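Troubleshooting: if your tokenizer reports a length mismatch, compare your output against this known-good record of 109 residues.
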Amino acid sequence: MPDRKQGRPLGSKVRQNIVEILYFYKKLHGYELYKLYIDLYPPVTMRLIYYHLKKGTSTGEFKIYKIDKKLGKYSWGGTSENIIYELDKGANPMIDSHVKVYFEKHKKL
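Known-good structure output:
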């Protein structure tokens, strides 16, 4: 019987897709990343994107660039946080041509 590690594998196709997006867009918060993801890849839930952003920060693929706090009257309280992510040293972008074409077509001038 071959030696196999127990548990789930470390890699994830969704997390790799997020790496590809962040490679071209550099810094994004979760909701912006989610909107781009569903335009580029098969639909996933927003919750899954946030899960992989959090998981990617613990594996060294992403890091938090900054946290923007906005004041307002929200159903959950008086402030809202936008956590902006960027790639970290553990990220290994494959430079997906699909994302590159999308980026070049939609980049802001």
